[in-house]
Amino acid sequence: MAILVYDGVTLLDVAGPAEVFKEANRFGADYRITLLSPDGADVTSNLGIRMAVDGAVFSEPAVDTFLVAGSDRYPRVGVPADLAAAARAPAATAGRVASICTGAFVLAAAGLLDGKRATTHWKVAHELAARYPTSRVEPDAIYVRDGATYTSAGVTAGIDLALALVEEDHGPDVAREVARALVVYMQRAGGQSQFSAPLQGPPPRSPALRSITDLVTANPRGDHSLGALAKHLHVSTRHLTRLFHDELATTPARYVANIRFDLARALLDQGHTATQAATLAGFPSYESMRRVFARKLSISPAAYQRRFSTTRRADPRP
User: Fold this and answer.
1) What tens digit of pLDDT does each residue of 114-164 get?
2) Could you tell me what percentage of the chain is helix, strand and coil, using 3-state DSSP and rounding each to the nearest 5?
3) Which string of b and e fits 136-150 if b means at least 16 CB within 10 Å?
4) What is the C-alpha separation between 295 and 284, in angstroms, rounded?
5) Burial letters 195-219, b for 16+ CB under 10 A, else e
């Protein structure tokens, strides 16, 4: 197994999966991890920590698994030709190829994601899709497998992917033991959306529609039925629906639900109960809020709150 590293590589993209494979060796696996750089020279990580490598990608024999770690640099700028070539050469003979986080940009630059499903960190998934339109980017996935090619989301999703590879190689029992030893989920519920920031879409172009979106944002609990919004703007419901479709690519009802969802999520983060959050955010009922959470995050409001409301343990003292 080889991991491609280079100057500016995200250290956790390397250390996280490597720790999974090292831990798997304690339970009967036999992973031998080598760090390779494009030219065989040692590299400096994003944290300024120098990393000693085992060799250059072009001088090493074929490997069964070839991982490409990510970097914050390449969503912002193009991947250098020598780095893309360094990914392309071992991939041609490897049994399987995988990227961690923004390492997907390196795979894509090497042509290894052409015509394939892929994912990367939610913040830059749109950039990957725009820059490499022949790849079918799935922005909510924790990791994606397309044939022998694997891509994963943000840094810790590399651990999820590594566990999946261990399970593929040695079965669920070994993967479960590794997950327990590292105190991580063997399989996380929901997709990346549960980690993403609140909606920050572009504002409407027309002042008329902007007045409606401002109204909803200022008072999510108000009566924002289609009829009420159309009456406020003195237009027909059909015309208002057309405005939302043309300028925001959504419906009035979906827009209102999204605004209420963002508010409810913030309220849950602050420690409000799910029922309180539903009421304060303007949802007609807890059930209607639960349906929106299920649609957008694939988890319930209660599950979301358990993950994100606080990092503090409850004080056992009375």
Assistant:
1) 999 999 998 999 999 999 999 999 988 889 999 999 999 987 899 999 999
2) 45, 10, 45
3) ebbbbbbbbbeeebb
4) 17
5) bbeeeeeeebeeeebeebbebbeee
DSSP-assigned states of every residue in 38-62? SSS--EE-TTS-EE--SEETTTSPP
Most confident among 227-231, 263-267, 311-315 (mean pLDDT) = 227-231
Describe the crossing of helices 207-218 and 237-248 by its angle, rounded to 10 degrees: 90
Q: Per residue in 10-38, is it b (16+ CB within 10 Å) or e — as a string? A: bbbbbbbbbbbbebbeeeebebebebbbb
Q: Which amino acid is at 298?
A: S
For residue 13, the 8-state DSSP code is: H
Q: How far apart are CA 144 and CA 118, in angstroms?
A: 6
Give the residue among 187, 166, 169 at the shortest CA–CA distance from 178: 166
Q: What distance, in Å, lies between the first and last C-alpha atoms of the chain? A: 52
On average, the pLDDT of the chain sits at 90
Contacts of 92 (CB under 8 A, 6+ apart): none
pLDDT category at 266 given cuts 50, 70, 90 is confident
Active site residues: 101
Q: At what angle do helices 226-233 and 252-269 cross, to 10 degrees?
A: 110
Query: Rounded to an integer, what distance in angstroms lies between the CA atom of residue 54 and that of residue 35?
Result: 5
pLDDT digits (tens, 9 = 90+) for 34-67: 999 999 999 999 999 999 999 999 888 899 999 9
Three-class secondary structure of residue 117 per DSSP: strand
Which of helix, strand or coil describes residue 2? strand
- Give the largest Cα separation in the chain, rounded: 71
Query: Would strands 65-68 and 2-4 be described as parallel, antiparallel, or unpaired?
Result: parallel
